[in-house]
């Protein structure tokens, strides 16, 4: 069965990158990287979530690439990055370090935005040398550091062991998602998006999620189910902003509030009424504005070099 391709029209159609490259992670794993926008512009790095790909950031890339250098990459097994038997938060941190080292000049700073598992990637990398060298500020969208399965409200049941057990089995299922049908769109919308999500948003997300191989989805579900990054959050010593939807069933606002309390330098939490888990797609302009504002506040654009004859 062929995998769905991203949408090709509208604001959620992935823009063509200015260039592509492969970053090599610590264990030799190749990581697919795309660079958009003008060289020398302030840098933004985008890390997508579980079952997604660089296509998830299409709306942000389309807006930011006019005056930013936007670097997006596919997590292991997602998009155009091959699957790897190494699925762990350490591997996520290794891969982000490799991307930063491959795309940024020594000492160059960037805003790093992570959605869901991408936000967990940022947390996992908080003590890494390359992260500390290059991270100027971070945006954490719809994410959490621990207790993902117990806090999930995908199932309309009372919190407790029964809900946790059933939720874990659903999220960790090996079953194929199949083609993107009307029923599949309804299920995905219920589980991951707000009730007011427009059809083009649902279509874009469904195509991205259904393109993720089920073996990859299953492997990373175990990492998320046992996630414990609380200590790493306390080491995330850069300015951080948080965005979460009040209708997020996968990482409800309780996670955002816990992160805000633990982060050394939290600059604010934005709770979006009626918005679900897919905040960069459901509220693209707000997420783009948050990234842009962080760049303005914390990243200085490199100054163009002046030829010797002009500087004399």
TrEMBL record:
Keywords: Hydrolase. Pfam families: Abhydrolase_6. One of its GO terms (molecular function) is hydrolase activity. It comes from the Bacteria. Residues 44-287 form the AB hydrolase-1 domain. Signal peptide: none annotated. This is Alpha/beta hydrolase. It comes from Streptomyces griseorubens. The lineage of its organism: Bacteria, Bacillati, Actinomycetota, Actinomycetes, Kitasatosporales.
């Amino acid at each position: 069965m062929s995998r769905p391709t991203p949408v090709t029209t509208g604001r959620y159609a992935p823009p063509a990158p200015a260039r592509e490259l492969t970053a090599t992670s610590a264990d030799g794993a190749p990581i697919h990287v795309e660079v958009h926008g003008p060289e020398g512009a302030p840098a933004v790095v985008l890390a997508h979530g579980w079952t997604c790909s660089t296509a998830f950031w299409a709306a942000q890339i389309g807006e930011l690439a006019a005056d930013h250098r936007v670097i997006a990459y596919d997590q292991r097994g997602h998009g155009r990055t091959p699957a790897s038997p190494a699925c762990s938060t350490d591997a996520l941190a290794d891969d982000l370090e490799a991307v930063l080292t491959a795309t940024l000049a020594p000492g160059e700073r960037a805003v790093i935005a992570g959605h869901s598992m991408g936000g967990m990637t940022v947390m996992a990398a908080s003590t890494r040398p390359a992260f500390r060298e290059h991270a100027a500020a971070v945006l954490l969208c719809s994410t959490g550091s621990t207790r993902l399965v117990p806090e999930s409200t995908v199932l309309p049941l009372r919190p407790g062991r029964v809900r946790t057990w059933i939720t874990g089995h659903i999220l960790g299922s090996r079953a194929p998602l199949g083609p993107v049908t009307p029923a599949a769109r309804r299920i995905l919308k219920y589980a991951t998006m707000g009730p007011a999500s427009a059809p083009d948003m649902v279509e874009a997300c469904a195509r991205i999620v259904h393109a993720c191989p089920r073996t990859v989805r299953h492997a990373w579900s175990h990492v998320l189910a046992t996630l414990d990054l609380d200590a790493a959050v306390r080491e995330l010593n850069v300015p951080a902003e948080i965005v979460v939807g009040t209708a997020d069933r996968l990482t409800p606002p309780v996670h955002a509030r816990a992160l805000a309390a633990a982060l050394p330098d939290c600059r604010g939490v934005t709770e979006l009424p009626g918005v679900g888990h897919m905040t960069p797609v459901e509220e693209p302009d707000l997420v783009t504005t948050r990234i842009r504002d962080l760049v303005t506040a914390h990243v200085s654009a490199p100054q163009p070099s002046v030829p010797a004859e002009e500087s004399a």
